[in-house]
Design goal:
By secondary structure, the protein is α+β, with helices and mostly antiparallel strands. Helix content is 35%, strand content 36%. It is built from 10 helices and 16 strands. Strands 5, 6, 7, 8, 9, 10 and 11 form a 7-stranded mixed beta sheet that branches. Strands 1-13-14-12-16-15 form a 6-stranded mixed beta sheet. It has a 3-stranded antiparallel beta sheet with strand order 2-4-3. A hairpin with a 2-residue loop joins strand 13 and strand 14. Helix 4 crosses helix 8. It is globular.
């Protein structure tokens, strides 16, 4: 008996909604002001969304937005914190977009994009102010800026540590600057994340000016990300400069994430796979190994019988995937452009 199955397995979930869109304007009499608010939110949200999922410059994104009816891409919306009186209307709005229509639009515009959510990243906002190193100390305006940033700010979910007694015991400012692997690994385990980022902001005050310089490190690999930001400000605009630095960083990081994944997509290889097994347990083991691989973009089962399955696998890195199979006692032999995969003992 053979059962035909069409099923896809993907490592990425697509982000298709934009939350926290704030609209505020003067009430116009004899007009549907809620409808006006929604139309504004569609445009604001879609521009924000395109900025997240592409690396295109602002003028190109603006041309795309002006050339279409943005409301035709909206699948649903929700309004939170709506306030209005005789003079003003304001609301926070969430807009959900149709990813298939956006895919078609961006292909027509020949614009590359990636809408997959990034991993959860624990952020350790380290600051040096006139050579004084600050992490958990109060005040740490750099830490506070991260806390106050809207949760739905980009494709990547940034997690800010609580800064409680356990955190203080687990890792210090000096440990963070030195990128101590054991200390950073311990705090990563506490927050159940696989990635930790250290955005290191150096602030120097000279006369009445503040000079801000940001570098960022991957906490576990110690890699210095190719992102550098500098700002110059006075005391009155210091808080604003912090937020501009933070927003610039998250925008750069989105571009980094998108560009890296576009590169991976372009290097993907589609392979036909015949999976052979002696028991349902072996089939489950092989399937789980494939699904858990970071080198697999998608896994589609085309047919399934009692002792074999014919499938398609889209690979990001073929060499690393084959090594993963071998490390999990799974053999691979290629015959007539079809991979024969089987668990061995």
């Amino acid at each position: 008996m053979t059962i035909n199955i069409q099923q896809s397995y993907a490592n990425d979930t697509l982000k298709s909604s934009v939350k926290g869109i704030f609209v505020d304007f003067e009430i116009k009499k004899n007009q549907d002001n809620r409808k006006s608010a929604l139309q504004k939110s569609y445009f604001i949200g879609f521009k924000r969304y395109l900025d997240w999922i592409t690396t295109a410059p602002e003028d190109i994104l603006e041309d795309i937005i002006q050339s279409i009816d943005v409301s035709s891409l909206v699948t649903s919306y929700s309004i939170e914190n709506e306030k209005f009186n005789e003079e003003r209307y304001s609301a926070l709005i969430t807009v959900n977009y149709d990813i298939e229509k956006i895919d078609k639009l961006l292909k027509e515009k020949k614009l590359k994009y990636f809408a997959g959510n990034g991993p959860k990243i624990l952020v350790l906002p380290l600051m040096s102010f006139n050579d004084q190193l600050i992490l958990w100390d109060d005040p740490n305006p750099w830490y506070e800026a991260w806390i106050e940033r809207p949760i739905d700010g980009n494709l990547t979910e940034f997690i800010i540590p609580e800064g409680d007694v356990d955190d203080l015991i687990t890792i210090s400012a000096e440990d963070t600057r030195e990128l101590s692997f054991s200390k950073i690994r311990n705090i990563a385990l506490k927050y159940n994340v696989k990635k930790v980022m250290v955005p290191f902001l150096t602030i120097v005050k000279k006369d009445e000016k503040y000079y801000l310089s940001l570098r960022c490190f991957d906490g576990l690999s110690k890699e210095l990300l190719n992102i550098e930001i500098t700002e110059e400000t006075n005391e009155g605009n210091f808080a604003l400069a912090l937020f501009e630095t933070l927003n610039s960083f998250t925008s750069f990081y989105d571009d980094y994430w998108v560009a890296d994944n576009i590169k991976k997509i372009e290097s993907q290889v589609l392979v036909k796979v015949n999976i052979i097994y002696d028991s349902f347990r072996d089939w489950t083991y092989i399937k789980k190994t494939i699904n858990n691989s970071k080198n697999v973009k998608s896994f589609k089962v085309l047919s399934l019988s009692t002792n074999e399955s014919f499938s398609e696998i889209k690979l990001i890195n073929t060499k690393q995937f084959i090594s993963e199979l071998e490390n999990n006692n799974i053999s691979m032999k290629k015959k007539n452009n079809v991979w024969n995969i089987k668990k061995y003992f």
